[in-house]
Design goal:
This protein has a single domain, classed as Rossmann fold (3-Layer(aba) Sandwich), CATH 3.40.50.1820. It is built from 13 helices and 11 strands.
Length: 318
């Protein structure tokens, strides 16, 4: 697949959203051409979708095909954060409605002629659900991977404290790689995902203390990640309480061992969605996209094949 980088206007004046646009290198299959919009989990970035996307491109068939896939960086994550640094310094809470509005703003600029399928993970999945609630019939279908859907306001106090204590800088790439590869949290990831996190999730920053070379710092600073956790307080609950309003075909993929999104929780809160498919990935946790991208993609392939007849001719209504 080929990739180009694009910068779009965000929903708020002056802010920018960076996206990677992926297209097939070979002629698309004869199936329904689709535009995929991918939204990542909190603390991460758009490039982590690439192993999953490679498998999706390789398995398109006569039922569906990918015309283009747009993977976004949230406004305070990845390359978007690097462009929006003046806006996010000192931000302590980031409502999830902000990400939803940015998604809709990018799609309006994109003006895709194809049915749009939203694919999200964790915070990104909930943001896509919020986007569809804000602007119904934007998406021809949604695939929510372990979305964070609280039933009551959740301040996330402990996870915010833990996130703000997280290590965020290293002397060089070798030091960063040694840290990530030996850390139990990251060592469980697929090697392709971990490699992309190290190559694309860090940026050089001048130490300002006479150091001979810049240090490497997470593009998504811990303060930005913790602001998103704080911002879940009401926006996640709104999404949960309004799931019944989503009319497009919607699939929920959860990890069997997911702590924030147990399968039984998803089954309970999604029962009133008119067109809903659910699947559970055996032995997987919350970070199934990072730990098992191929198995995740295989579930997506099944969802897309199932949804293909329903998506034919869909045009987004912004």
């Amino acid at each position: 697949m080929d990739v180009v980088r694009r910068v779009y206007d965000g929903a708020r004046a002056g802010q920018r959203i960076v996206a990677n646009i992926y297209r097939p290198r070979t002629p698309a299959q004869s199936g329904q051409p689709l535009t995929l919009l991918l939204a990542h989990a909190n603390g991460f970035h758009k490039e982590l979708w690439e192993p999953t996307l490679e498998r999706l491109f390789a398995h398109a068939d006569d039922r569906w095909a990918i015309a283009e896939a747009i993977a976004l960086d949230g406004y305070n994550h990845g390359d978007s954060a690097a462009l929006n640094r003046e806006f996010i310094i000192g931000e302590t809470s980031s409502s999830w409605f902000l990400c939803a509005r940015d998604i809709l703003t990018v799609l309006r600029q994109l003006q895709s002629p194809h049915p749009i399928v939203g694919i999200g993970h964790s915070w990104g999945a909930t943001s896509l659900l919020l986007a569809e609630l804000i602007s119904p019939q934007t998406f021809a279908a949604l695939i929510a991977t372990d979305p964070i859907l609280y039933t009551a306001p959740e301040p996330n106090t402990e996870v915010v404290k833990m996130t703000n204590r997280r290590r965020a800088e290293w002397a060089d790439e070798a030091a960063a790689r040694k840290y990530f590869e030996s850390h139990p949290f990251f060592s469980a990831w697929d090697s392709r995902i971990l490699d992309r996190h190290i190559r694309h999730g860090l940026e050089p920053v001048n130490a300002g203390d006479g150091a001979p070379r810049p240090r490497l710092v997470l593009k998504c600073r811990p303060s930005c990640e913790s602001a998103v956790y704080t911002g879940a307080l009401h926006s996640s609950v709104f999404a949960t309480r309004n799931l019944w309003r989503i009319q497009c075909p919607t699939a929920f993929l959860t990890g069997e061992k997911s702590v924030p999104t147990p399968p039984r929780h998803i089954a309970a809160i999604t029962r009133d969605i008119p067109d809903c498919t659910r699947a559970v990935m055996p032995a997987a946790g919350h970070l199934l996209v990072h730990e098992a991208p191929d198995a995740t993609a295989d579930h997506y392939i099944e969802f897309l094949a199932r949804f293909a007849p329903k998506m034919h001719g869909h045009k987004p209504k912004f």
